[in-house]
């Protein structure tokens, strides 16, 4: 219970720091929501808008008000869209979750077999090529890779759509085709991390005594690798995959914008450009 209590305290502290810094940074941007909502309006109308949403109150007062409302489940209302932030998040969260799930599935589907093979064939040509490719993926930002994938597979080859999002319920085939390139863009860096991590753990596991006993019993190599070596080597991989959820969320922001996917990433970018403070705060 003491451990759980400490973690809860740390969680609350992190949430307070992150939400306050987000509120501070978005308010430091030049201009405000009235510059978008009240474009062409008179000074009186602009001031009326600011009074309506108490935008002239001190920053700490407005943050405290937002924090109190958020604690009760009210994330406020968009200045621009006149819609509750909770409703906007509900409308946009599905594509983002789908993109994260697809990226995770692709990353694990590629990283696990490659990691197992590179550990089994340590220092071989395949191992060196796989590691070189992994370092290449790590060095390429996902937004650069996204543009490259669009150029190759959408513009040059015409195999996949360059932009757009089709809900799964409308057309499953087009949905999958439209999500392949975004998911690959997000998954590429994760593949490299997962593969390298699993390779390292597998190499250590393959040197354990119980693996030697399994080999002495004449067990097939495939069974040794998948049943006896992979299981104890996968704990670190699963832990890192769970921790990387935060990284995936950050990675989807730019990728969604590039592929014109109406998810949380696009919502955040739109809200930043329109100085829609409460939407930025709520989505973060």
Descriptive labels:
14 helices; 0% strand; 284 residues; mainly alpha; elongated
Task: Describe this structure as you would to a colleague.
This protein is an all-alpha fold and 284 residues long. It is 76% helix and 0% strand. It has 14 helices and no strands. The longest helix has 36 residues. The chain is elongated. 29% of the residues are buried.
SSE layout:
Blueprint: H1 2-28, H2 34-37, H3 43-52, H4 59-71, H5 85-120, H6 125-139, H7 142-156, H8 172-205, H9 209-216, H10 221-233, H11 235-243, H12 245-258, H13 264-273, H14 277-283
Helix pairs in contact: 1-14, 5-6, 5-8, 5-12, 5-14, 6-8, 7-8, 7-12, 8-10, 8-11, 8-12, 9-10, 12-13, 13-14
Tell me briefly what this model is.
The protein is mostly helical and 284 residues long.
In what range is the share of β-strand residues?
under 5%
How many individual β-strands?
0
Helix content: over 70%
Give the overall average pLDDT.
84
Q: What is the structural class?
A: mainly alpha
Cα shape: elongated
Q: What's the alpha carbon Rg, rounded to whole Å?
A: 24 Å
Assembly type: single chain
Low-confidence stretches: none
